[in-house]
């Protein structure tokens, strides 16, 4: 799959570790982008993130996760998203 159809999920853990996982941003039929917002919300409800990685299944409890970064940002964002944010002193 082309890089423009792939995303990167970066998981930052409380212990300082970081894990980058690449994923397909589109459904198998490539008709639409995956609803990452819905997936993440379901994961929050379940208190863990489930990731299929190669031939393994990872179940990561949210108690271990400091924050998650999704690149590029999904087109559909939650209503409560602060848009266009940047670091202080940097141009966006």
Q: Output the number of helix runs.
A: 1
Structural class, by secondary structure, is: mainly beta
Q: Low-confidence spans: pLDDT under 50, at least 5 residues?
A: none
Principal-axes geometry comes out as: globular
Mean pLDDT metric: 84
Question: How many runs of DSSP E, i.e. beta strands?
Answer: 5
Biggest beta sheet summary: 3 strands, antiparallel
| Helix/strand order | EEHEEE
Word description of this protein:
With 92 residues, the chain is mainly beta. It has one domain. Helices cover 12% and strands 37% of the residues. The protein has one helix at 36-46; strands at residues 6-13, 18-24, 48-53, 56-61, 65-71. The strands form two sheets. A three-stranded antiparallel β-sheet has the order 2-1-5, with no helix packed on it. A hairpin with a 2-residue loop joins β3 and β4 (56-61). The longest helix is centred in the middle third of the chain and has 11 residues, at 36-46. The chain starts with 5 loop residues before the first strand and ends in a 21-residue tail after the last strand.
Features:
single chain, 92 residues, mainly beta, three-stranded antiparallel beta sheet, two-stranded antiparallel sheet, globular
Q: Would you kindly provide a brief summary of this structure?
A:
This protein has one domain (3-71). It has one helix and five strands, in the order ββαβββ. It has one helix spanning 36-46, and strands at 6-13, 18-24, 48-53, 56-61, 65-71.
């Amino acid at each position: 799959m082309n890089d423009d159809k792939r995303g990167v999920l970066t998981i930052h853990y409380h212990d300082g570790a970081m894990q980058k996982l690449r994923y397909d941003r589109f459904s198998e039929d490539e008709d639409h982008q995956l609803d990452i917002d819905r997936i993440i919300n379901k994961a929050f409800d379940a208190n863990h993130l489930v990731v299929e990685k190669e031939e393994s299944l990872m179940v990561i409890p949210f108690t271990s996760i400091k924050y998650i970064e999704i690149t590029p940002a999904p087109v559909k964002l939650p209503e409560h998203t602060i848009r266009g944010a940047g670091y202080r002193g940097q141009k966006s």
